[in-house]
Hints:
By secondary structure, the chain is an alpha/beta fold. It contains ten helices and ten strands.
Amino acid sequence: xxxxxxxxxxxxxxxxxxxxxxxxxxxxxxxxxxxxxxxxxxxxxxxxxxxxxxxxxxxxxxxxxxxxxxxxxxxxxxxxxxxxxxxxxxxxxxxxxxxxxxxxxxxxxxxxxxxxxxxxxxxxxxxxxxxxxxxxxxxxxxxxxxxxxxxxxxxxxxxxxxxxxxxxxxxxxxxxxxxxxxxxxxxxxxxxxxxxxxxxxxxxxxxxxxxxxxxxxxxxxxxxxxxxxxxxxxxxxxxxxxxxxxxxxxxxxxxxxxxxxxxxxxxxxxxxxxxxxxxxxxxxxxxxxxxxxxxxxxxxxxxxxxxxxxxxxxxxxxxxxx
Length: 322
């Protein structure tokens, strides 16, 4: 049986279906991501690809999608493609501009899901990381509520089918919910056993907002500059390895299965064919209730993608518990 038939589909609040497992493309280098995406879809049955304007590789992802459509029976409706508006496009009109650029890069007429990448906006212009002249980022005071209005424009104009948020905290989500015409359908956040997001997950569930887990493996491929010697290595956790051993699975497969059983969409990234294959091979075993409780009870707390450079931004999201 094709693994694509085993991936669960979850229903968003607008009735649209999203595959519960996808391929992330953050830090996937140009020159490698085209074949990785093609292989994931054609050879391994992935149907969900997670992208973002800032990743700088959407053109190559688009080439992979064209390869798929030209060489298989798969059509656009068979795939679920996500992208995200970048921080320098936070004013209302610029949201549509950024969305249109992503669509052009990907060679698509619409996105299945479009997210505000971060609540914190940067000075608008051609520079993706505009300098403030003092070694930091030049911020903008554009409110993410205005950004959300731009997201609704993209939805109303047919550029996207669903809209949501990424890296927003509970207070920020509640504020969007109180100032929107269309409610966010998804929240994408870092999520793994060292940051299990239990409170945020329950908060979102009560408001019919689904959760997607990025960096579910502890972000082992994150930029070297952000790696500290004291950072815990999630994939080396002996408790996960021991659980995996019982099921003849790797720690990575346990981590992915953990999110799937919670009802959280999970998007591990890789450009390595063996890992792409391993990451979707998680439907022939099930974690027991006790194993799930054990993983949820990990006391370690670590955020791998803290984006510390934006800690002085008025909308920096990680200053409160969740």
